[in-house]
Amino acid sequence: MTIVARNVRTRGGEIDLLARDGEENVFVEVRTRRSSPGAAAESISAAKLRRMWQCAMDYCETNGLDPDHVRIDLVSIDLRADGVVGTVEHFRALEVPE
Which option is the CATH number for 2-91: 3.40.720.10, 3.40.1350.10, 3.30.70.20, 3.30.300.20? Predict the structure, then answer.
């Protein structure tokens, strides 16, 4: 993937990264959690996913991108108590709840 933009903002919301992966425009949320119960990936809500999707659609409309070639990804970063990265996970093509 190639990063195209950071902190993408539209009237629909904000997304951390926009990247290209072949023909797809990938809107990426990055979540970080420091040694607390549960993984960083667990902190993304259905409401946040819906806002991300709306933001992605707004961005496509404004910038002339094909909305049929969009996906939402999540990068989850869990830090240990000392602040060092413990795990990094990339979740591709998240399903956006209705």
Answer: 3.40.1350.10
